[in-house]
Write a structure and sequence with these properties.
six-stranded mixed sheet, 167 residues, alpha/beta
């Protein structure tokens, strides 16, 4: 573990924490002294194993971002668990698995879930994060190396709070 802990005492909400990229983010946040909030949808076993991998220095929060109020439920559960949240990493993502030949309702449900998880939930979480950051004398910044390189919507959006500085 590094002796420099830039995230010491900071809480970081990571959506999709149990997947490959999410897991790596959680491990790095913990290594840098942060308190990761591990979001998972259904695989509690993987979430528990990841929490154990960081010696229990994190918080588990279950939410289904494909549900209508999934992002709101996630944010509120995370905030109720830890109080102040310092950063948000929107990492969760799915891919619609439907075919042209499928029933229209099945097709529509798959795409609705895809849009909720990949578009609506990150937007809703960013909105809640910005309001939360402002209420805690912070300011929001959004970073995305992929967007700067490719000029496209990034798979990961990160919002971080920082204290407001006096002029």
């Amino acid at each position: 573990m590094t002796s420099y802990l830039p995230l010491k005492n900071e809480t970081v909400l990571v959506t999709g924490a149990t997947g490959g990229i999410g897991r790596a983010i959680v491990l790095r946040v913990a290594e840098l002294g942060g308190h990761p909030i591990l979001h998972y949808r259904s695989n509690e076993g993987d979430a528990q194993a990841l929490l154990e991998a960081i010696d229990g220095h994190g918080t588990l929060v279950r939410a289904d971002l494909a549900e209508e109020h999934g992002a709101k439920d996630l944010w509120e559960a995370a905030e109720n668990s830890v109080g102040r949240i310092g950063s948000l990493v929107n990492n969760a993502g799915i891919r619609a698995t439907t075919r042209i030949e499928d029933d229209f309702d099945e097709w529509s449900q798959a795409w609705e879930a895809d849009l909720r998880v990949n578009l609506r939930a990150p937007a809703d979480l960013c909105r809640m994060a910005i309001k939360h950051f402002r209420a805690h004398d912070g300011d929001a910044s959004s970073t995305s190396p992929a967007a700067r390189r490719q000029g496209a919507t990034p798979p990961i959006t990160c919002l971080t709070v920082r204290p407001r500085q006096a002029c």
